[in-house]
């Protein structure tokens, strides 16, 4: 029987709860807490954490000879448990964004109580990981996001082995996120981004799963694993190394690149068509060289919309303000 984060009642249905996994030696303080599905339509993280829980349970039960789970691990795969059923980003009853409800309130409304219970559970762990996808418009390369990190977090972020570690400024509007609430409790805190909401992108899921297992191995939480040699090429991007490519035209966007690709300045990365006449309005050219970490998948463009984010090898980013564009967090 899995433990429950919170049990809730509803006006006209059975009680329901938010289950989580508590794996490994119970007598120990949890070493890591992994959370996904604060947004119910971000399925990659939900799926990967459920798979990871199954994997760790096998280790814990000795089903994988030579491999062991040494530390206690908490996994909450779907915080917005009702939202996942409905493919809804927000909590379905009152449309509240759970990742704007922290630190929450014990005895408050439902979403406040969920936030408070999740924080109380996860703050005991030293490592904490919150997994998101983008929204339903953009696709994110699997990456670690750091917000005003300390040096330990900068170093540890590389242990995931994901292709990009990206530092972002702490958005002053987002002080009610889980990641922000965690900072008050020390430890090391990470946000992972992978793929796009509303979809299960198996390529991103595999990369995410591998990265989490590698992280658990490198931090001594599991032992005896053979990590795959096909390690991603890891790149670290500081605050001024994110370039947000915005459109100055409305229309239909046809993207010509995938996340994870490196481009040169001047490379063709897409086209914008007039939605009625079908005329090509312009080619989209990358103004900077770098790694494409995010692309627009929903094609309808209004002027000023984000087309893609490019991580630049030097400080030629422009994205101090444009970070408000659809972060999916
Ligand atoms: Zn999210």
Automatic annotation (TrEMBL):
Asked if Zinc is a keyword of the record, the answer is: yes
Is the keyword Hydrolase assigned to this protein?
A: yes
Record's protein name: Succinylglutamate desuccinylase/Aspartoacylase catalytic domain-containing protein
- Pfam families for this protein: AstE_AspA_cat (PF24827)
What GO MF terms are annotated? hydrolase activity, acting on ester bonds; metal ion binding
**Which keywords accompany this UniProt record?**
Hydrolase, Metal-binding, Zinc
> What cofactors does the UniProt entry give for this protein?
Zn(2+)
Q: Which residues form the Succinylglutamate desuccinylase/Aspartoacylase catalytic domain?
A: 29-200
Q: What highest taxon heads this organism's lineage? A: Bacteria
